[in-house]
Amino acid sequence: MANPDMYNESFNERYMDQEEEWEREGLLDPAWEKQQRKTFTAWCNSHLRKAGTQIENIEEDFRNGLKLMLLLEVISGETLPRPDRGKMRFHKIANVNKGLEFIERKGVKLVSIGAEEIVDGNVKMTLGLIWTIILRFAIQDISVEEMTAKEGLLLWCQRKTAPYKNVNVQNFHLSWKDGLAFCALIHRHRPDLLDYGKLSKDNPIENLNLAFDIAEKYLNIPRMLDAEDMVNTPKPDERAVMTYVSCYYHAFQGAQQAETAANRICKVLKVNQENERLMEEYERLASDLLEWIRRTTPWLENKTTDNTLNGVLKKLNEFRTYRRSHKPPRVEQKAKLETSFNTLQTKLRLSNRPAYLPSEGKMVSDIANAWKGLETAEKGFEEWLLSEMMRLERLDHLAQKFKHKADIHEDWTKGKEEMLQSQDFRKCKLYELKALKKKHEAFESDLAAHQDRVEQIAAIAQELNALNYHDVANINSRCQRICDQWDRLGTLTQKRRTALEEAERVLEKIDQLHLEFAKRAAPFNNWLDGAREDLVDMFIVHTMDEIQALIDAHEQFKQTLGEADKEHKAIIALSQEVQTIATQYQIPGGIENPYTTITSTTITNKWGEVKQLVPKRDQILQTEMMRQQSNERLRRKFAEKANVVGPWIEHQIDAVLAAGMGMQGTLEDQLNKLKQMEQTVVQYRSHIDELEKFNQEVQEAMIYENRYTQYSMETLRVGWEQLLTSIHRTTNEIENQILTRDSKGITQEQLNDCRSSFNHFDKTRSGRLTPEEFKSCLVSLGFNIRNDRQGEAEFRRIMNIVDPNNTNIVQFEVFLDFMTKESSDTDTAEQIIESFRILAGDKPYIMPDELQRELPQDQADYCIQRMPPYKGPGAVPGALDYMSFSTSLYGESDL
Amino acid sequence: MSQGILTLNLARDGASMPWGFRLQGGSDLGQPLTIQRVFLGSPSEGELHRGDIIMRIGDRDSNRLTHQEAHDVIVRSGNNLKLVVK
Description:
Strand order of the largest sheet of chain A: 1-2
Low-confidence stretches of chain A: 1-26
Largest interface: A-B, 19 and 24 residues
CATH architecture of chain B: Roll
Oligomer: heterodimer
Structural class of chain B: mainly beta
Strand content of chain A: under 5%
Number of helices of chain B: 1
CATH superfamily of chain B: PDZ domain
Mean pLDDT of chain B: 83
Number of strands of chain A: 3
């Protein structure tokens, strides 16, 4: 940014310069005054000269006003009022005033200049007045392009000196100092008067003088400036220079007029040029517009499309763009053209020029016609576009309809050809085929129903063709495809129908065969199954008879094989016929037999198996025969031995039991006998072992039955064990009985009683009794067990004693124990009480002395110490309660 | 051999009249409390029977009573005796 101070400074300087310039009017520099006096005097004289007079001293010669008035008349060409003829001061003032009034009438305000100062010979005032006159009459007229007089003069100078490079007129003082400006002015107008090329800036005096001389000599312009003054004065007086320069201006007035003429010509030419420019522009615009119309119209007249809605839409869009963007500038252009044309014609008329006639074909009417043509085309084009759009929409709709129908149809036909060509029925069973036939019939009626649609599709295609649909090629090919396919479908349908009917016939024939096959194969298969089963039947035979029966049955079976073979061949033949027919007619679906799961392969296999099994069976039966023979020998061997050993064991057991019954001899005798028996039995062991060996052989031969003996090894072993056990048990029993007898003091008779009773009820000879047997046994021994609650309770009491563990078994030893307890009458509380009662003489109490008297000392003391006193009825002092004592001995108490 | 459980209410006229049964067993003797004998003409006749096992005496479970304890409980029961037997 520039320094504002510096800017202001330079501005002020310039301003000050100007100010100084205008100040000079009041404060006249002596050098300037000298210059002005000289110049103005010369100027005045140059005019006064025309009136035959002149002035010597400028401030003196205008004092009476007469020469002033004369000067004004000369320079204005007008007549001033008669001057006053007197020589009196007031006359002078009056005359000066007349001059001043004339000046004022010319529109110049003389503010500070008074007549008296002029009359008094005031130099400053006089020079000012003269300057005013010079300015008004010599300079004011100079008006180049409406500038002020001064500026006009300056501009005139600048223009005239413009071609001279070393001259630059910027003012009316310093710019003129070198004299070149004057020379240039002269040379410009009168090049003949000086050779400007020889002039130099460095010779100002010469230059000035040259100009002044030539001006004086050839241009009738007196020397108004002094060359030396000009050069020596730092700044020449502006008014003086202006005055002198104005003389140059007036001197070259003729040239000035020529210039004015030139200007006028220029003006006219300018008008012409402008008009021509307008004409050219009109021509250009008209050409352009016409060219555009010429170009555009065919596009608007081009009513061809690619037949697609999109194409038309694109065109419509283009048309809209044309209407929106391309046409408006042209409308403007046309309007401008018309306006220009009118303006041009008006201008021509006003400038008295002949009217403009555009070149051929570019008349306004031509343009209007072309435009009208364009608009007509445009209107037609728009209408055509819209109708085309409607047509194509209809076509599009039709095409859509075609497509829709074709889609539906193609969707429907999809897979139909494959379905019709399918050989599926060949794998069908008869019932499936019948279903397929029904299905096909349904399809045929469906197909007939679709005829309408195909016709519709063809009709639409035809219409599309008639309406020239753009993609008619595709439509036609598709329509053709559909029609072709339709024909194919018809043919295929017919073919399939024929094929299905043939297949049905064949399958029915096959079905008959299948049925026959099934009827015969089933029983034959059953027979085969039975035969196979029988042939591999896992027989278990134990006798020769059984195996012989099997062999006979097998022989009988073999007799039937011939018949079976015939049946087999017949059945296979049926199956083969099915195969042949199915292969011949290519209907594998018929091969499977719906009536049976039995296949000929199965039959053949089974038949083959049966045929193989027959000899195998023969062999198996023979082997079994031999095995049975061997078994028979083993049986006999075992039986012979068992039949000896068995009875022996039974005999021995009987003997032991008889000994155990204890009916013969004393217990000791029985015991001895048993010991002998045991000895015998131990020695017999080797027979059992031998028998075990035979048995092992029998078992290894898987023989389970032996009709030659009732004895089995198991029964013999049990018998053997039983024999040993019974010997031991009986021995033990007898030993126990000896112990019991010895401890309980029962007699042999009592023991025998018990034994015989027990044995009587021990029907199983197990040495044990069930509760019921025991009850019967007790009753037989004299126990009063009634069949009532009392009896029941009594029996339960006894059972609690003999069977405390509730095993429901009563053993002889326990029974014997019970019997001795019940019958020995010794140790129960009751027995004691009864014994005391006898000692007490039937009293319910006993006296100590009675005890001491009846019992040994120890026992008497024991009783006396322990017996509680008797408190019952009829008690006497010292009486003892033997009942409580007795019961308490057995853990009992009477309550 | 009925194993039914019976509740018996015995009554007597006074403490001098015995209940008329012989008691056997007790937890100390390794045998259940059992009626060993019923005396004719006593309050127990027709009510208790030989072999009856006493389960409760009055309101007491008699399974664990010793012979003497059972004896004492019966003696202390006054003129009305409730027995549960099987």
